Input
Amino acid sequence: MSSIVHLVRHAEALHNTNSAHWTTHDPPLTPFGKQQCRELRARFPHHSSIGLLVTSPLCRTIQTTLSAFHPEVSRGVKCVALPELQETGSGTCDTGSGAFVLKQAFKNTPIDFNLVTNDWASNKGRWAHEDKAIEARCQVVLRWLKSREEDEIVVVSHAGLLRRLTDKKCSCGKYHGPSWKNAEFRSYSIAEFRPDCTVDGTGSRLGLVEETAELRQLRVEMSALLENSEEKDPDDRKEKEENGAESGGGTAFTRKPAGLLSSLWNGSRSAGVSISRMDLTVLIYVAAVILVLLPFVAGGREQQDNTPRIES
Output
């Protein structure tokens, strides 16, 4: 299950410079866009942590991926073209090329086009540009990313699709996701929201929770703590928890927060908790306070155990 997803908007392409180029089919990057890729490569701080590159199959996103994330490409990181990441518009500039054409155009690159179907650029059926079809594609993207084993993934896509991925539909029926500049990146974790966060109010829905630098550091520390405290044998863990509860020891206490933190980071409801975007943020900071106080609680308990007791 991936922990962090770095979303990236492609660098400047020809259609971003002038509306006259909106009728250009699948436009490439401009010279300035290629410069933006080099600048993005220089300022992106997580190159060594990336385990997978995922790109929309349009020319401008593929070019951005290969250039801005050349360090990953050069060390053999897998790069996958995912058609659900295509732009939300149906204009000529937002319509991609067929799978065969793409494979020929980028045959000397490591891009994997196996997930690109022959009809992905048809603008029909599941590839249509109505709200329901776009929302369905966003959920496909998030569930696919959540199923991956890589810890950190880069996703290169388009402004419209990124806005849909990073915000939910409001009661007015419109999406108010943040705007994206060319060659901008933001880091997110994937969480499962309550049913009332879905478009139609039924079922569950995956969403993205933006991660600040502080939350990123906290996640790394928590992950290390959970990994070090996890027993390999579930039966041994159960026995230790029961013994800890009976003897008044700290085992049962410390295992409970660990289970909760694990469910938070995995974006799941394994602890029976339905976590919203705001709930997740609050609980993460509460967990941080718990981690800070645990050493003092443990120290006080140890000191109390060493104090002579008077039998009544």
